[in-house]
Design goal:
The complex is a heterotrimer of chains A (266), B (262) and C (259).
Chain A lengths: L1 H9 L1 H23 L4 H5 L4 H13 L4 H31 L1 H16 L6 H8 L3 H25 L3 H9 L4 H38 L5 H10 L3 H29 L11
Chain B lengths: L1 H8 L1 H24 L10 H14 L2 H32 L1 H16 L6 H8 L3 H25 L3 H9 L4 H38 L5 H10 L3 H29 L10
Helix pairs in contact in B: 3-11, 4-5, 4-7, 4-9, 4-10, 5-7, 6-7, 7-9, 8-9, 9-10, 9-11, 10-11
Chain C lengths: L5 E10 L7 E11 L4 E5 L6 H9 L6 E6 L2 E2 L7 E4 L11 H5 L1 H6 L3 H14 L15 H14 L4 E5 L7 H18 L2 E5 L3 H7 L2 E5 L6 E6 L14 H20 L2
Parallel strand pairs in C: 3-8, 3-9, 6-7, 7-8
Antiparallel strand pairs in C: 1-2, 1-4, 4-5, 9-10
Helix pairs in contact in C: 4-5, 7-8
The chains are: A mainly alpha (266), B mainly alpha (262), C alpha/beta (259).
Chain lengths: 266, 262, 259
């Protein structure tokens, strides 16, 4: 008995949290057996097992691979562009006060508005092919990256900058030696936010104007009342975002080995 | 010389203002004198301004904005009413926190927007569906920020109040609530952004009213100046709300330097 | 001295924690403080001196032993005891005035009385021009003066001070010590003062109690025979230095042995 008590107290957190989720899933699965469902409601109802089945079928019948492929391309291209544009811009605006002042109004305004508002415009410009989605992913992801990199640069330790400068370092060297390493945690936060926005961009972009992609698959399944496929799609997105978040965590811990535990961003 | 000083002091403002004016002017010039303007593809500031005047002052855009706001407020209010107490519960009672945290984190991390088509199919097109979507997206920042705020209450202050004989009620109202307030307001700011996404997606996808609908309708009919005008209207609203939130943050919590986690 | 105001006997306290060995903070700790006395407690880090203050304050209960105030056992926080904390513990969202009123507010004292009392104390600690300021606008010394005013507001018999000046710079610290003595002279409270600084203990107190390393016990009590009122120059006399070195000799053993 004591061993059980110890076991519990050690892992209390995961037992409670995991147990709760497990309980919900089980209840969900058992619901049609426990509660009588009206005709209308059962049209929209599905259970965890059915979702898993649907997932399996999609993969086995090779219906999902193409969609996954298209969505991934849109995601990666958009995110890649966002990193390429956002990081350097964040660095420069962080170091140059004039440039910062000039660019600030645009950034503030664009950051405050939901970038999805530009979707109809992008579809008008780029059609319903890949590019409109890439652009919406780009415009969603670039701002967190830019802003957080900017914050990271701005928060560079003044003392360290002066130290390096006193040894005769030029602007570029200061950037490399002090500013960049210091900004890593900020950039990581920005990357995490950017990934979230990017996924959002892919999902919504494909709802609205697309002929391929996971979002498109979800949207068509919804109109055809294939609720299990809808949830399967959502689950896949969840899984992908989880994998990406863990990847970012790993990258961060690799880059932050010198930092004391409490200051890590996760 | 006075003018020079004035410029130097408000340098940031002037640089910002002039760069915006420059971009607008360049945009106008380029599309008037340099490049041919294909009206199905592009537009220029002067045309947008005219469309703005028409739509906003004489037209239906205000009505659209009102419809969107109503749905937004419904969803957002429920997010506040449910999210804050939930977050507080999780922060104050350790077991509640342990139990609910992973579940909510999983939900927060998943693109709940992906359920939008389902929500619309189930609840139809209209106020209720949009509010549900707004709620689903904006409730989580309230939960998590309140959670973090309550948990971060300075234990020392709790001991101080206890040492003067304060009871549970005193602890809640005199320490925990004021201490958590800046977190809640910051959460509100984040929730605002997410809620806006909810309302836009809801209206793009299937709606017959609202500003999101207006934008996509103008797009479908290639009325670019009107489309830009509506986008611009939404931008102004969004900025006003967000900056208003920031101001609120500084007013309600002058003692705290909140971190940026936009 | 008469009957002691504070009596602690055989106090033992063990801290149990989930993933560590239990820690005995205090074992068979005895202490007596007379009414109106100024007593300091010094000891090595982790010896349990702050823990003891918290026990007296009533926020934690000992595992065994008894504590009495004026003959009555201590069962929880009470109006007769007030603490001044090392990290100040001011509510950041309240002004100086509202902070000083906190104790009175919690006791249900009506507003006009609270206000009058707060005004008195704010004047006493010399913060009259700052009563509408917020803590983040104050220096460390000023914050601690607010802490002191707050503690005195409820008119406690005993003032518990947990390294109150440790977070201040040396000059402010000296100033605050002098002010504290003045205020003590005026208000005639019983003070129990925890500190790391032998000099501070010797300067301020009637008696200095040296504690052993963890688990803490009162090792020895030294009487400070310096005349009152005390001034800064006294700290430069050979007599003072001798006192200091006596305290040091007792403390020294505890620092090197374990802890």
């Amino acid at each position: 008995m004591k061993w059980l008590a110890n076991f519990y107290t050690e892992r209390e957190q995961s037992i409670l949290g995991g147990g709760f989720i497990l309980l919900l899933i089980v209840l969900w699965e058992l619901m049609p057996h426990l509660v009588p469902l009206s005709q209308g409601f059962s049209l929209f109802f599905t259970t965890p097992w059915k979702i898993i089945e649907a997932c399996y079928q999609l993969f086995v019948e090779n219906k999902i691979q193409e969609h996954l492929y298209v969505s991934s391309i849109e995601f990666l291209a958009g995110l890649g562009l966002a990193i390429v544009a956002g990081l350097p811009l964040g660095l420069i605006t962080g170091r140059s006060r004039n440039l910062d002042a000039m660019v600030d109004p645009f950034i503030t305004v664009f950051n405050a508005t939901p970038r999805l508002i530009f979707l109809p415009l992008f579809i008008l410009w780029f059609g319903i092919g890949i590019w409109s989605k890439v652009m919406i992913v780009f415009i969603g992801a670039v701002f967190p990256l830019l802003i957080n990199t900017y914050e990271g640069v701005k928060n560079a330790d003044r003392v360290l900058v002066n130290v390096v400068r006193s040894f005769g370092a030029n602007e570029w060297q200061i950037m490399k030696i002090v500013v960049l390493p210091n900004s890593v945690p900020y950039i990581v936060v920005g990357l995490r936010l950017a990934i979230g926005r990017a996924i959002l961009g892919v999902v919504v972009g494909e709802f609205f104007g697309a002929s391929k992609g996971l979002g498109f698959m979800i949207a068509t399944a919804a109109t055809n009342y294939k609720v299990d496929v809808v949830f399967a799609g959502v689950a896949i997105f969840m899984g992908l975002s989880l994998i990406l978040t863990m990847a970012v965590k790993k990258i961060e811990s690799n880059l932050s080995r010198w930092r004391p535990e409490e200051t890590k961003t996760f | 010389m006075k003018i020079k000083e004035f410029f130097a002091e408000h340098r940031r403002l002037w640089l910002g203002l002039s760069s915006v004016l420059f971009v607008l002017a360049a945009w106008e010039m380029l599309l008037t004198y340099v490049f041919p303007l294909n009206p199905f593809f592009f537009t220029k500031p002067s045309l947008v301004a005219v469309a703005f005047k028409e739509q906003v002052i004489y037209g239906a855009l205000w009505g659209d904005l009102a419809v969107s706001s109503k749905a937004f407020l419904w969803g957002f209010s429920f997010a506040v009413l449910l999210g804050i107490p939930l977050g507080a519960l999780m922060g104050w009672r350790r077991t509640a926190g342990y139990t609910l945290d992973p579940f909510f984190t999983a939900l927060y991390a998943s693109p709940l927007v992906a359920l939008a088509p389902l929500i619309i199919v189930v609840f139809g097109v209209g106020l209720f569906a949009k509010s549900v979507l707004v709620f689903a997206l904006s409730v989580f920042p309230f939960i998590f920020n309140t959670f973090a705020g309550v948990r971060s209450t300075d234990r020392l202050l709790i001991n101080v109040v206890r040492s003067f004989g304060g009871g549970e009620k005193d602890l809640y109202f005199k320490v925990i609530l004021p201490s958590t307030l800046p977190y809640i307001v910051a959460g509100a700011r984040i929730a605002l952004g997410r809620g806006l996404v909810g309302i836009i997606v809801g209206e793009f996808y299937a709606a017959s009213e609202g500003i999101g609908y207006a934008i996509s309708r103008f797009g479908d009919t290639y009325r670019l100046p009107e489309m830009f005008a509506s986008i611009f209207l939404l931008m102004i609203t969004a900025v006003a709300l967000t900056e208003g939130m920031r101001k609120l943050e500084t007013v309600l919590a002058p003692w705290k330097t909140t971190q940026e986690t936009r | 001295m008469g009957a002691p105001l504070i009596q602690a006997r055989d106090i033992t306290l063990v801290f149990k924690s989930k993933d560590r060995e239990p820690v005995t903070a205090l074992r068979d700790f005895d202490l007596e403080v007379g009414k109106g006395e100024f007593v300091s407690i010094v000891g090595p880090s982790g010896c349990g001196k702050s823990t003891f203050l918290n026990l007296l304050l009533g926020l934690i209960k000992p595992d065994s032993g008894e504590m009495k105030l004026d003959g009555a056992p201590i069962t929880g926080p009470g109006q007769e005891r007030a603490m001044v904390f090392q990290e100040f513990g001011l509510l950041p969202w309240r002004t100086v005035r509202a902070n000083v009123e906190l104790g009175l507010e919690l006791k249900g004292v009506p507003s006009p009385e609270r206000s009058a009392r707060a005004t008195e104390l704010i004047k006493l600690v010399g913060l009259k021009d700052f009563e509408r300021h917020y803590p983040h606008e104050l220096s460390g010394g000023m914050k601690q003066r607010v802490g002191l005013a707050r503690a005195l507001a409820t008119e406690p018999e005993v003032l518990l001070m947990d390294e109150p000046f440790a977070a201040l710079d040396a000059q402010t610290r000296d100033l605050m010590q002098a002010e504290l003595l003045q205020i003590w002279q005026q208000t005639k409270k019983t003070v129990l003062f925890v500190t790391h600084s032998i000099e501070e203990a010797a300067y301020l107190s009637d008696r200095v109690i040296v504690m052993t390393a963890r688990p803490g016990r009162a090792k020895e009590a030294l009487k400070i025979q310096l005349p009152r009122p005390r001034d800064y120059e006294m700290r430069l006399t050979p007599q003072f230095n001798e006192l200091k070195s006596r305290i040091w000799d007792v403390l020294k053993e505890e620092l090197t042995s374990r802890g």
